[in-house]
Design goal:
Layout: H1 6-36, E1 38-39, E2 53-54, H2 62-91, H3 106-116, H4 122-130, H5 138-152, E3 158-172, E4 176-177, E5 183-186, E6 200-213, H6 219-237
Antiparallel strand pairs: 1-2, 3-4, 3-5, 3-6
């Protein structure tokens, strides 16, 4: 016999599949970016530092933005399915027009409660109310803010950004290894060492970059975290149906 929350769990399973795909595609895109990044190892005559890494500004492919929207949609659907199951369980019959509210103010919750949470018992209403963003559940707001524009206006904006480069250096010409420890250049990518043009150099570099939301939040990591929170909420209500 089917469990009332099977459909919600199926949405979470699909979310995990999309996350795996998103992670793989982001890694492949960043790897391409690393390969095309330019290193500038020259010093200016004045001794002033030069920009070290010119990281490509190519926008991530649209398919990544599509997958982010699908992830948000599936998480939002899982929560909506939860409310539908709760309403039927608590009232003894299916209820039309239910959905999981995600609002920023208590008065907004009160305004939507009668229509969206029709048939849900008072104890369960109290739990849903505690899951609202105004009670510190900021990950709920992210689901809404990713899902609504994706459904009605446009795909979620993403960008790629350089984070750091780890470098080791060697000067050829009798001086050997100059620096035993790699240097880390964060953010601005400046080349700090006082090399002169008479030296030949071999530099090993590992460039770290990521695909992020428009506010700089790493997209794969935050969506994995939000998915775990949605799974926790669904599991929290699971015993109610046994």
């Amino acid at each position: 016999m089917a469990h009332p929350l099977d459909h919600a769990f199926a949405r979470l399973d699909r979310t995990e599949e999309h996350l795996t795909d998103l992670r793989r595609r982001c890694d492949a895109f960043i790897d391409e970016q690393r390969k095309s990044a330019r290193l500038d190892l020259k010093t200016q005559p004045s001794g002033e530092p030069r920009k070290l890494v010119d990281f490509p500004s190519t926008e991530p492919p649209l398919v990544l933005r599509v997958i982010v929207g699908e992830i948000a949609y599936n998480m939002r659907s899982a929560l909506d399915y939860l409310i539908y199951a709760l309403a039927e369980h608590d009232s003894g019959k299916p209820q039309d027009g239910t959905q999981f509210p995600i609002v920023d103010r208590p008065e907004d919750f009160e305004g939507r409660k009668r229509a969206w949470l029709k048939g849900v018992s008072d104890p369960h209403l109290a739990v849903v109310e505690q899951l609202q963003p105004y009670h510190g559940r900021y990950w709920m707001r992210l689901i809404r803010d990713l899902s609504n524009p994706d459904k009605h206006r446009q795909l979620t904006l993403l960008h790629s950004e350089f984070i750091s480069a780890n470098l080791g250096r060697m000067v050829i010409g009798g001086e050997g290894l100059v620096s035993g420890q790699p240097a880390t250049i964060e953010g601005a990518h400046w080349y700090p060492w006082p090399f002169t043009s008479k030296h030949e150099m071999y530099v090993e570099t590992h460039i770290t970059a990521r695909v992020s939301l428009s506010d700089g939040t790493p997209v794969v990591e935050i969506l994995q975290l939000v998915k775990s929170q949605v799974a926790y909420v669904i599991e929290m209500f699971n015993p109610e149906f046994k």
